[in-house]
Amino acid sequence: KNEVEQSPQNLTAQEGEFITINCSYSVGISALHWLQQHPGGGIVSLFMLSSGKKKHGRLIATINIQEKHSSLHITASHPRDSAVYICAVIRGGNQFYFGTGTSLTVIP
Amino acid sequence: DAMVIQNPRYQVTQFGKPVTLSCSQTLNHNVMYWYQQKSSQAPKLLFHYYDKDFNNEADTPDNFQSRRPNTSFCFLDIRSPGLGDAAMYLCATSRVASGVGIQYFGAGTRLSVL
Questions:
Q1: pLDDT exceeds 60 at position A105
Q2: I want to staple A17 with a disulfide (CB 3.0 to 4.6 A). Which of A13, A24, A47, A89 is the partner?
Q3: Averaged pLDDT for residues A38-48
Q4: Which three-class secondary structure string do you get for B91-112?
Q5: Among B23, B50, B114, B56, which Cα is nearest to A94's?
Q6: Contact across the interface for A98 and B106, Cβ inside 8 Å
Q7: Would you say residue A65 has pLDDT above 80?
């Protein structure tokens, strides 16, 4: 069983919809990353969280340490948001554990 | 400007022919990582350098080696590539502060093995 589970695995949305991607983890962590990977492979770090909530433009990330759960929200989704979104947890030091990703397609 | 640069973006090699992938960074970060990502899978950490200290993951095959001649550069050497080594290879860096650092990723090198 993977230490980091994401849901859903695949998501298709209409442009303008509010999107939520969930991440649950089963281990103690120092922090959690949300990453975005576009076709072709490049990965961009969107957020690093250790508590509470962060917002950047149309993206919002929340984390509940007690429940071992994080969510990534995209408001007013756009086709350019189409990508794979990966949750990764940090367990002390430099060790990252990745979820398998959520593939998002936003249809115009 | 790109801060973590991987070269080449695409690499084709023959079965068994050694290949080297390159990563450079302009961030002066302590830590450099190499990940392997196969299609539809999460990136898998192969190894990382904390300054000059090399840390190998337990399940990284011996076929994979790494060198970090200085802070800015890190190389991934695949000594005898097999068909199963075809993948995207991602380099990342972080500057550790209080034990946790945001990772900055390169664009990746897609390796094909013929």
A1: yes
A2: A13
A3: 78
A4: EEEECCECCECCCEECCCEEEE
A5: B50
A6: no
A7: yes
Q: Do B100 and A42 touch (CB under 8 A)?
A: no
Q: Which residue has the higher pLDDT, A21 or A91?
A: A21
User: What DSSP line would sit under A1-46, residue for residue?
Assistant: --SEEEE-SEEEEETT--EEEEEEE-S--SEEEEEEE-TTS-EEEE
Contact residues, chain B, for A63 at CB < 8 Å: none
Minimum Cα–Cα distance from B39: chain A residue = A41
Closest Cβ–Cβ partner in A42, A94, A100 for B50: A94
pLDDT of residue A96: 74
Nearest CA in chain A to B102: A48
* Predicted local confidence at residue B99, as pLDDT: 44
Out of B43, B102, B110, closest to residue A45 by CB? B102
C-beta separation of B72 from B56 below 8 A: no
The token pair at A91 is: 């367990």
What is the CA A7 to chain-centroid distance, rounded?
Answer: 10
